[in-house]
Amino acid sequence: MEGPLLDGLYWDSWYNNQKLYDLKNSSRIYYENILLGVPRVRQLKVRNNTCKVYSSFQSLMSECYDKYTSENEDLADFGLKLDSEWKYSTSNTNSPWHWGFVGVYGNGGFIFTLSKSKSETKNKFIDLRLNSWITRGTRVIFIDFSLYNANVNLFCIIRLVAEFPATGGILTSWQLYSVKLLRYVSYYDYFIASCEITFCIFLFVFTTQELKKMKEFKSDYFKSIWNWLELLLLLLCFMAVSFYAYCNMQIFLLLGQLLKSTEKYPDFYFLAYWHIYYNNIIAITIFFAWIKIFKFISFNKTMSQLSSTLSRCMKDIVGFAIMFFIIFFAYAQLGFLVFGSQVDDFSTFQNSIFAQFRIVLGDFNFAGIQQANRILGPIYFITFIFFVFFVLLNMFLAIINDTYSEVKADYSIGRRPDFELGKMLKKSYHNALEKLKLRKSQKNEDKNMGDLAEQPKRENLDENELQRAEQMKKWKESLEKKYYSTETQDNQPVTQQEFRELFLYTVELEKELHYISSKLNQVMRKLSGLQY
Q1: Which pLDDT tens digit goes with each residue over 285-302?
Q2: To which H or E segment does residue 149 belong?
């Protein structure tokens, strides 16, 4: 910390040794990024004797420091016990805990705030080193500081982390959060603000529409998966608006206080963390909004076939997935136990699962597996490729392909779902013409019609039902002509195409019988209600 860290944090002169900008003695990292306040160094420690030493080794080891947990954390003062860096300080902010490589760390600790002067900070680092500020109980050290670049109006909140695991050594990592805390500066920002207001208005309108649908359809509303998706989108949108309002309120309240004192550490990590959470909510919301497009793609034949294929083979895929993951997890457990201590990709059970997905995609380290175990390594790899890649994945493709063939055959004879978007556009077009008085109302046309062929329409039968009835009539005529003719031989063979037509005809008959049965049940319920 006495060398590269200080040189990187304190930029006080140009390349020709001329004095840099004089802005309240602030550092300009890379000449453009203002160091806000001063950096902070924080460490967390664990107590001695937090782990149990085996009796045979107690004579060789008098100290034992376990891994970091909130129960093992050392809260006692140590060292010189004079300044704040030797005394434990609790956190006075709502910053989240840090998730590191080997542990999850709290917000308190032994804190040392750097100075504005590079020489003073260097002398303080030397003093801490000579008095052993970092001990065997140290488990993590955080170096936090914040920058602001006015050229791009971005704050950069930086955290450098050095973890000291119980096994020895050091693991380094970092977090860089570039966030726009001052949102409304340019004209484009104000345009974005107008879009955000429009979004809130649409959100209110859509919420009102969904509430009306729920009131109209009641329990039937929740039987559609698309309605559940609508509710999920509305929930995510309200969460995004809430996060946005909370973040801006906190920025309004805290930004002035953080920038007011240049001699203290400004904790922007809290604001950056919630801003990242807001971005995550926005990302998930947009993802489900794109998924919602599938609701309106039935106007396209190809996309309708794909959606019908997935919905029809869902049960088969679920059954296949159970069998697939039983074998997949069995190999993952085998890889973890056999190669976990030798190969980093199999160091944990979760890593083994991800490594096997990479093997399926062709990204694998066979040399490392073979080196870890000369016998079980090749056996594991060959059998995994055979059973998972060649057998199970091909079974999955066969399920999809077989279902797609059935759907395509249904479409070839006219059995296709309603074109929802097409019907909606057609209905809107007719309504617009009726309002402009360019077309007579459909109700008036129905009243003036006396042709018996239009009778089914007056009995609440739509065009799809009429088309199905016409299709059934054509099938019946063709089948009677082919199979009930006097010229037909008894031993005449039935081709595969004819069998498919007979099968589909039987399915349609079954649907019509079910439809008639439901109508009769409704009529009987109405009659029974009239009797009482």
Answers
A1: 999 999 888 777 666 667
A2: strand 138-149
